[in-house]
Amino acid sequence: MKPYLSIENLTQRFPDGAGGELTVFEDASFGVEKGEFVVILGHSGCGKSTIMNILAGLAEPTSGGVIMDGVEVKGPSLDRGVVFQNYSLLPWLTTLKNVTFGVAARYPDWSKAKVEEHATKFLAMVGLEGDVIYRKPSQLSGGMRQRVSIARAFANHPKLLLLDEPFGALDALTRGTIQDELLKIWGQMEQTVFMITHDIDEAILLADRILLMTNGPQACVAESVEITIPRPRNRTEIVEHPNYYAIRNHLVQFLGKRSKELSGRTAVAGEINRPETVRIDKTEPQDDPEDTRPALVAVSN
Known about the structure:
Elements: E1 5-15, E2 21-32, E3 37-41, H1 48-56, E4 63-68, E5 71-72, E6 80-83, H2 95-106, H3 112-125, H4 142-155, E7 160-164, H5 172-189, E8 192-196, H6 200-206, E9 209-213, E10 221-226, H7 244-261, E11 276-279
Parallel strand pairs: 3-8, 3-9, 6-7, 7-8, 10-11
Antiparallel strand pairs: 1-2, 1-4, 4-5, 9-10
Helix pairs in contact: 2-3, 2-4, 3-4, 4-5
């Protein structure tokens, strides 16, 4: 049985300016289950944003395809919501109207009052209430603008939510607050999420799985790392979990060394190039437990 979102043999090539082609990534094949929060990590140039644009229907792959809920992804759709790093709000509309604009398109039969009530509810879920919802984007801080962008995406009830480094431009304190709000809404909505980030700690906090890409060009999705830390997760407590640093060290080692070593590998003809599943769990009993006999101790005569 295929997963809810299925990426199949996705390849992207661009002209290299010298009459040839540059392969950004090749034969990427992976799946995302319904309600799953998946993060993709990789160095700049490996094609993460290109994959995101293909999932959003904003770009066409050179070959391969994307199937979501049994239907091939072709072009933009209200079934897929995108939150960009640069907010992408309509500057001439108020905070409230930036959200109602999409809701009205999603639910054309709703009354104006129902649309505004729905939008107001989602703005409140990201901490925006009172007179602030009548301000225009130029009157909001960067953190507030990103809150509006997140509320707008969730309010449309998309089948798939795509997050393209949504917290990259925010300071650490604001980023942490909005991450917590994102997790809260995601937990209530059971939304399927696919996210790009460069922040390893953010990825571990948010994700069910982390996909690791090798360096570009000719990158591939090499590993799928399960985050074996139970939810709900708290940023001040997650570091105490025995799996946290084991997972983090694996991610750092991959990005610092193995992503380059594995770069440029070509898929075997006729085979599906799926990422290797990695599960790190220090809470499970080991297959080969250590010898429990007392250690030998040197003694003097």
